[in-house]
Amino acid sequence: MTPAARYFDYAATTPLNPRVWAAMQPYFEAEFGNPSSVHAYGQRAEAAVENARGRLAAALGCQPEELLFTSGGTEGNNLALRGAALAARRQRGANRLLVSLVEHPAVARTAQQLAAEFGFELAHLPVDEYGIVHPKDVARLLTPDTALVSVILANNEVGTINPIAEIAAICRERGILLHSDAIQAPAHLSLNVTELGIDLLSLGAHKLYGPKGVGLLYVRAGTPLLPTQTGGGHEAGLRAGTHNVPYIVGMAEAFDLAQAEVDQSARRLTSLRDHVIASIMQIPDSKLTGHPSQRLANHASFVFKGVDGNALLMLLDAAGFACSSGSACKTGDPQPSEVLLAMGLAPEWAAGSLRITLGKHTTQADVDALLAALPSLIERARMLEGAFR
Amino acid sequence: MSKGKVVVAMSGGVDSSVAAALLQQQGYEVTGMMLRLWSEPGREASNRCCTPAAMSVARRVAGQLGIPFYAINAQDAFREIVVQSFLDGYAAGGTPNPCLACNRQIRWEYLLNRALALGADYMATGHYVRLTRNPGEPVRLFEAVDSHKDQSYVLHVLNQAKLQHALFPLGELTKPQVRAIAAELKLPAATSKESMDLCFLAGQDYRDFLHRYQPQLIQPGEIVNTAGQPIGQHEGLANYTIGQRKGLGIPAAHPLYVIAKDMTSNQLIVGTQDELGGTQLTTEPVHWVSGHAPAVPFDAEVKIRYSARKAPARVTPLADGRAELEFAQPLRDITPGQAAVVYVNGEVLGGALISAPAAVEDSNKYAISFAADEHR
Prior knowledge:
- The complex is a heterodimer.
- Chain A has helices spanning 18-24, 40-60, 73-92, 105-118, 135-141, 164-174, 193-196, 245-260, 262-280, 309-318, 338-342, 347-350, 364-388, and strands at 6-7, 67-70, 96-100, 121-125, 146-150, 177-181, 200-204, 215-219, 286-288, 299-304, 321-322, 353-357.
- Chain A is an alpha/beta fold.
- Chain A is globular.
- Chain A starts with 5 loop residues before the first strand and ends with a helix.
- Helix content of chain B is 26%, strand content 25%.
- In chain B, α1 (14-25) packs parallel to α2 (52-65), α1 crosses α7 and α3 (75-91) packs antiparallel against α4 (98-117).
- In chain B, the strands form 3 sheets. In chain B, strands 5, 6, 12, 13, 14, 15, 16, 17 and 18 form a 9-stranded antiparallel β-sheet that branches. In chain B, strands 3-2-1-4-7 form a 5-stranded parallel β-sheet, sandwiched between helices.
- In chain B, a hairpin with a 5-residue loop joins β15 and β16.
- By secondary structure, chain B is α/β, with parallel strands linked by helices.
- Chain B folds into 3 domains: 5-201, HUPs (Rossmann fold, 3-Layer(aba) Sandwich); 219-275, Adenine nucleotide alpha hydrolases-like domains (SH3 type barrels); 278-375, Elongation Factor Tu (Ef-tu), domain 3, CATH 2.40.30.10.
- Classes of the chains: A alpha/beta, B alpha/beta.
- The interface between A and B is medium-sized, with 20 and 23 residues.
């Protein structure tokens, strides 16, 4: 029933860039060594890992030793929150976490577990109707006993970009650590961690045409962090486990390629995105979610009143369009998005979310086909929901 | 050349997986859908119909067949319609069969609507039941070839609008044949044991469930004999069903059975095996599969529970849509809230819920009607 569908889910994942694959391939075969080994195989593998670290550090504006390789964004978020919270408590008795209401579950659930199982007090940063965390709220809610603040850089569900540099300045002034989940950002924004003034920042490779299963955590030099995965002394004792050499090489390649064309790509995608937004806003009972301009270049997200978002995704897929409701949810979980509720959307709107995210293979023809098909599919989804209600 | 688009309701079980494979072999364009039904919070992993493990098996089957697969969240609808009808059924003093509501309103309405919205011509399930289609005539519903697996009892609720879109590819097969096909095609199958338990009870006793959701139904009261004399205490009428012998806790010379429940006086009426049962019952309005009620009384066979044998009966359609049934032999456990399903030569003509005997005023349909009335 589904021929090769047009893909509008680049925020979920992206296809591997063939040049990235070419860079990775030798490290599966000839250069298979373990970077921890003494011999020549190990030396060449270690050189590849450290070369990748150097390239990534240059791209991000930090020192190589400030980057830890992880298995992806979720692990980076877990290590940042758990590792920094536990270290701050040990070092200065700080027992409070200040986390925005629009975090990805990798941050939100980790913070909840730290509260429920490890005795931290969990406080939340509110957001406005666009999902933006305001620096004045950070200033107001920051207390000396706060171990860590975590604010997502660009939201995965609604695409809104937060003023991280301003928030970082406030945290820095008060001597409190700031972490940001930046996983959605680097395909569309140039990132410089020094300019941002941040302490911890999580990234993954597969949102920018790199492989799944690899990521990094930037840890500003001198930031107290306890390891959450212990074992051999890899990554300065902060993240044990044999290095995933081909994937680490692939991430560095993907990062360089994506950041090199970030401005050009953002210009093209912004124009396509704004066309999508203008067209979809013509559909009755539709709303843009997230900020109209302060958002990722490739990200258009909406809610439709009286629509079950999952039913709409199924209709879209069967019609040949691969989209998302905003967060991956294949098992049909009915809970409306916490992010949309935090932005003040009523549940009857929040249940009908649609995320359209564009990427480097998206053409004007793809977008035109989607925009032509969408109104009648929404109409059909509304009839289904009406039949039940 | 496609014979049309069909959505198969998949469960990860061998029946629906084989149904999907067979339809694909027959030249249909197949899509799989799996319902995610309501479970009590915290018990999702035990829901008999749709555990995460069963979902992953269904996905594997869909992947092996190369068909699209969608999980359909019907939790709200299931809670509001099926679980509520279950609770309401007990509140009314009956012993409800929630599978009837599920087939009528969830599988063959909520899911069917989604299949049709997707552009499907048909929806199929792994139910064991047969259909015949002749141009210009109503679709007719028949028992399965495999009488052990026949599921026509629960599918009598389908109407013509639904049946015209229905396919049941297993109706001509036996369960061993279906297993053999699954083995031949190397289809993965969920390792759930066959069970008659209700899916949303997730392995717990229905009484525990009622205790949590309808505690007001669990009022202790008197157990009386058919002469109206108190002989013990019951723990709440919802805990008992007609014909039940175990768990009464009353010593007696002859085994005692539940004969009726009087919701008004909160009394449980018990009696001996002789006093149990009757030859007549009246139904709620009948659903006739053809869409038309027969004009005159006729002889048929009637099933009064999912697992009951068919019993010969005279069926008299009433002007108000209900029917009166008179059985050739007394039946032990005529239970209000269960369906009476009417068959002629293996064809399902229709069915209806069995009315509570309290609605019967002036006949000896049950011995207990008199006894209860006298007692009042």
